Amino acid sequence: MSNIKVLKPFINGSFVESKTTKFTDAYNPSTGEVIAKVPCCTEEEVESAIASAKAAFPGWSSTPVLKRVQILYKVRDLLIEHMDELTELVARENGKNWAEAQGDVLKAKEGTEQAIAAPNLMKGESLLDASTGYDTVLYHEPLGVFAGIIPFNFPAMIPMGWMTPMCIATGNTIVLKAATFTPQSALRIAELYKEAGLPDGVINTVTCSRVESEIFLSHPDIKGISFVGSTSVGLHIYSQAAAAGKRVQALCEAKNHALVLNDAPINRTAAGIVNSAFGCAGQRCMALPVIVVQEDIADELVHTIKEIAQNLKVGPAYDKTTALGPVVNAGQKESISNWIQKGIDEGAKVVLDGRDTVVEGYENGFYLSPTILDHVTPEMSVGKTEIFGPVLCVKRVKTFEEGLELMNANPFANGSVIYTQNGYYSREFMRHTDGGMVGINVGIPVPVGMFPFSGHKNSFFGDLHCLGKDGYRFYTETKVVTTHWFDEHEAKKRETSTWDGTI
Predict the structure, then answer these.
(1) Rg (Cα) of the chain, in Å, rounded?
(2) pTM score, two decimals?
(3) 1 has pLDDT over 70
């Protein structure tokens, strides 16, 4: 028990002892051991974090943006300085292999670098003589306190790359609800923000249950919510918080499909699919859990994917030779295993079954090897529902048109991919797919941070996506100021037009 940390929320610049009596175990997925006790912060503690952020807002929002981003420059340097420490922390609490965990931290750095551009992207617009003698200027201003509700699968990138940097660079303050399964990365990076010189209260990080999180949806001091997680929860947050007048961006589930045409080079396409389907143990909303393959190449492609996938080294996350790490906890492993069985029961053909994986020396870890289910048909739930694990479903079609129609029947639309060397079909796919992020021979079409993470349909609720210019707009509101100065003649007038300065 001595190696098990009892975590503390980070409120007003300090780690504080929670008064809760409820704690959740956080695990090292590679060993199955408990590594931390995560407090379910009380409602009073969540209220305290919001109050701290509110108190910090006037001083922080009035700090010139050039000075705000100077702190983010220091944060970036600290992320680089602590790269190995943070990489190991992500690997130990989440289960990503070393390269994937390092990528998680690098994406936090990338988001920080995008936020450093705030002095340019917050600049407004102006027009001299918008109407004769009337000048108009548009400004972007911060709103106040935001809440960030974080999933377990990217414990560094999402809170500290997608949410916090842009939120605070634009002059707002934030309360993060860290994921109960993987809270330590967000808590540690919040500490690095403090080291970089961020004033107390600008970032606050709590851990709590959904019950306490409900406070964010109606609290009068919360101006907006950024959420990443399930569609059911995202829709609830969007409905409740938007009804309360708050801004919401809710990034939700996916069931991304790739259409593979018969001219696609088999080996390279298979390699891309294996990486996309089984990377991060399939625990990412931009994973590729379904491929839609033209029938005349399906057997060869599935055989090649199996050959590559079954040779991936499964092992502990922090072993740098591991290709596929564990899933996050026992509950997730059980859920994924149940979905595999459901697919079999529905009639899918098992090409590869990863459920009985045991890693020598790590027998209690939460391991699953790649699983491939072939001949998945449109009515099977295994091909429609997000499984969030290393499971690939194969659907077979005759034509491009049939494949595109099948893909667009999907209620989710985060990403979509086509593998082909045909420019015509690539263009047709790009134009007509429902996916918000499209890959042409790119299995994980997540754009770099200067573009938005733009899911569609039931994968996103809101108006402004995270990152890119959308992100800056989400965290700011516009103020338009029209100015007119009276000359000596006009100053003596005792009447003016109803449309004064507007026509």
Answers:
(1) 25
(2) 0.96
(3) no
